[in-house]
Amino acid sequence: MPISPATLNGYEFNSEAEKKIYLAANSSGYFSNSDHYFFHSLDLSDTGSKKIKGEIDFVYLDKDCILFFEVKGGQIKYDSLQNEWYVMGATEKGNPFKQAYNSLFRTRDVLLPKLFNTRSVAERLVFGIGVIFPDCIRPNEFHKSTSGAMEFDPQLLYDYNNHKSPDGLVEYIKKIKAYWSNHLQFRNRPGISYKELTTISKYFRQELHFTLPISDLLAKGHHELGRLTGMQMYVLDNLKYNPGKGGLIMGGPGTGKTILALELLKRSVMQSKKTLLVCFNKNLSDHLNRKASEGGINENYEIRNLHELLKDETYLNGRSAPVTGDQVYWSRDLPLFFNRNLKASKTGCYDYLIIDEGQDILNEYQMEALGKLLKGGFESGNWTVFLDKQYQNIYNEDAEEYYQYFREAYPSVVTLLQLNCRNTRSTIKRAAVQTGLPEMACLRISQTWNSEIRYYNPGQDLFNRINEFLLKLEKEGIKKEHITILCTEKKQLTQLMESGKGSFAECAFHMAGKVNICTIHSYKGLENEFILIAGPENYDTNNHIQMSLIYIANTRATSQSIFFLDRRFKTIIEDREDSNL
Fold it and tell me: Is there a single domain that holds both residue 396 and residue 526?
């Protein structure tokens, strides 16, 4: 494509000003063929700099010339007495002209001679620079001057007046090209061949686009995720201002419920309250115990998964009920047995109760069992339930009915978490297309990787496609422990483990040098950078539990999710994509 990047999917700009210029170029139609090229963010430095994007903001290329453009957004100030520029909202010194000239000199004197093994190509081209201020008016006190080989001229500036004109950017580029072509040193230069033009464009696109190292990109995403989740802490303050009332905190995947539950545990323990945190998934309880320990929470609390707690004989008079394994046993018989056999010394033994994954726990038998452990019961208001009835209810048919009863029966404050903090917009959009569930509002702005749907042929092709994608991630520098494969069916897990030849670890937690693999059910509440999802053998849009599982799987990804689906169902996805346009 003559304009680079060709698409904004997963692409990040260093500033809004750069994005404005890219969009103006992209919508102009001027770069619709291979006569004119426009590149964003090329690394033309020779300093070993680790600037997030390249050393020059934009480069224009055609068979006659190469032009280098530096972009500065916001307020710009020029001090004519000191001959100094102030950028970054007019707060920091920085000469945009010199930045553009540095890239010009490097390309003309080093990169092109090295690329072609001769200076001939550079000697046939016109070289020039321009400076772009899309948000402000050019300063009147700025006048033409020179310094060595560098020329500073108001004619080289693009300002707000240019930007508001419909064809302002293209007209500016043409003007800058004419400005430099009329210079005595460049006059009558013959230009280069189409082949030479193509060689330079490929070199710019493939070799000089500069991106942050993978580790820094991931760290940047983690920082944003942590900052956004931290913004949700106001919810816990609401509980503090409603004494005597419990909390019902509802939100979809990625809204920070589990992190809030852990923070609430910490606050409760610091107030000398003996606290119990209960969740449904065993792997999540293990994860939370580890996080609590790492966070310095050392005593006066317990974190348990529900069924482990209800079977714990230290709470019971006698042994627990024999396990039958069916759904009725876990949701009714086991909690009833716990209720009847709870030791008197354990009744009311906790000052505060926190329930995560509440949508899986909200039924009369399980909640009665947990209520007996809370001093004063649920009437005390010393409890908080975090739940997601809309997206993540895959076990409990009674959740909605019991929620309505529970909310009316006990003093409570209901709070909604409506903004997803964990996932990128791309991941959220793909999850909605795959499942038909509503697209969540998303807070995250940064997006380096674009989530995808990939199709496989029936049979063993699924495992081939997954292994191919793993190789792709490895070539990009992604560590294996940053990747999790989630299976919708147990037999997929078994087959993948056999195909992995020792490179997979069948567990929910990260292991150095291994891709971990497990079912979606066992990964609820957890997350990783890259999530690869083995879609169901029989994809059924009418199966609510299956759709919820797929949504849950996608939203485990903090960077990218890849959904592998049997090609037989491709038209279903395409119809959904068309309806979302």
Answer: no
Amino acid letter for position 505:
A
Which helix (DSSP H) or strand (DSSP E) does residue 402 occupy? Answer: helix 399-409
**312 lies in the same domain as 365:** yes
Work out the burial of residue 345: count CB atoms within 10 Å of its CB; fewer than 13 is exposed, 13-18 middle, 19 or more buried: exposed
Let me know whether 405 and 313 are in one domain.
Answer: yes
Q: Which residues contact 463 (CB under 8 A, 6 or more apart)?
A: 495, 496, 499
Orientation of helix 461-475 relative to helix 490-499, angle to 10°: 60
Q: Which two tokens stand for residue 48?
A: 């070993």
All residues at 6 or more sequence positions from 455 whose CB lies less than 8 Å from its CB, including other chains: 564, 565, 566, 567, 570
Of 390, 420, 450, the one marking the end of a domain is 420
Evaluate whether 113 touches 107 at the Cβ level (below 8 Å).
no
Q: Which two tokens stand for residue 122?
A: 């550079």
- The range of the structural domain enclosing residue 93 comes to 3-210
Q: What's the one-letter identity of residue 358?
A: G
Domain boundary residue, one of 185, 210, 235 = 210
- Please report, as a single letter, which amino acid is at residue 79: D
Q: pLDDT digits over 415-453, tens only?
A: 998 888 888 888 999 999 999 999 998 877 666 678 899
The answer to pTM > 0.90 is no
Q: In the chain, how many domains are there?
A: 3
